[in-house]
Amino acid sequence: MLTRALPLLLPRTAAPRTDRLATPACPLVGSAGERTLQQRYGTGDRARRFYDTQVLDHLNDAMRAFVARQEFMFLATSDARGNCDSTFRAGPPGFVHVLDDHRLAWPDYRGNGVMASLGNISENPRVGLLFLDFGADGVGLHVNGAATIVDDADLRADHPDLPVEAAPTRRATRWVVADVHEAYIHCSKFIPRLRSDGSAPRRGRSDYFVRPRTTSR
């Protein structure tokens, strides 16, 4: 078991949500806001079919295999006041590791040092992950849950099979471990089909939007 999570940087003031999935005390699935709008717009029956057939509180075998093939994901977080941030995370296929049916983990690589996502998680553990496959599968996977920041050495003590990146700049000093609260498909209907051109990864260009540019006449 993980017993050595990093201490929170700031007081955790946002209580975890418990109203997403049905329980004996609350047999309705989804948030109160979802249910209110489903009733207003007449989509309740369609939503119920989706909840009943698509929404799980764990990762099934197909989901686990799908995550193991992915090279990137989108991560949504918010701070204790609800200020949101979304970001892009990428790595080699399977860089997000499924630890078991109810937990997955991804490395925190060296970035700009702002710690926007980790800072939010330290205040509010709620996270939303979106995996999109623009190629063969042509579908997406939503995973929502609660995350914890864990030191690399501590996670490896419990999971020694985690790979070690060859490039020093890609070696994680810490990981984010997320408990899965709900997982469900993102329909392929509006996911475009893209194809890699086989080129090498681009060099980092952190000044793309702020460097001076010349204009042609």
What can you see in these coordinates?
By secondary structure, this protein is an alpha+beta fold. It has two domains: 29-56, no CATH class; 59-189, Roll (Pnp Oxidase, Chain A). It has helices spanning 32-41, 44-54, 61-69, 116-123, 152-158, and strands at residues 72-78, 84-90, 97-100, 103-108, 126-132, 140-151, 174-186. A seven-stranded antiparallel beta sheet has the order 2-1-5-6-7-4-3. A hairpin with a 7-residue loop joins β5 (126-132) and β6 (140-151). It is globular and about 50 Å long. One of its GO terms (molecular function) is hydrolase activity. Residues 196-217 are annotated as: Disordered. Keywords: Hydrolase. Residues 59-186 form the Pyridoxamine 5'-phosphate oxidase N-terminal domain.
CATH superfamily descriptor of the largest domain: Electron Transport, Fmn-binding Protein, Chain A
Terminal residue distance: 64 Å
What's the CATH class of the largest domain, please? Mainly Beta
Biggest sheet layout: 7 strands, antiparallel
Trace the largest sheet across and list its strands: 2-1-5-6-7-4-3
Region (Disordered): 196-217
Organism: Virgisporangium aurantiacum
Protein name: Hydrolase
Keywords: Hydrolase
Summarize this entry quickly:
The protein is of the alpha+beta class and 217 residues long. Helix content is 21%, strand content 26%.
